[in-house]
Amino acid sequence: MQEFREEIVVQETVVEEFVVDGSVVAEVEQRTEIVLEEHEKAIVTVVLTTGPKHPFPFHPEELVGKLVREAVKYFGEQHQLDPTQPYELLRDGNKLDDGKTLEASGVKPCDELTLSPCKRPVDG
Q: Which of 14, 37, 39, 49 is the most buried (most CB within 10 A)?
């Protein structure tokens, strides 16, 4: 995933010079542009059990639960899941604890995590 840093660049170009009352006067054209500079950023990819996937920024100190909420929000906005239902993140098929950080959960940059509906206990 790319992260962009915005920088505003102002360029002045002399269009024409002429003399007024013994002084040189220049007509200047000014152009302002916004330059986006790319920076590599660590990501994790979240995959739905139905197939769609999306990269998210990787912050090792972030709680698993926060990434779950961000992923549910994103995929809900894309109409790829029902955001009113509970979900959990899985890494290699194992549920990650929402209360632990990504780092404490063993998640590393470039990992692929699965966002799965929470398993509901069966009444017996």
A: 49
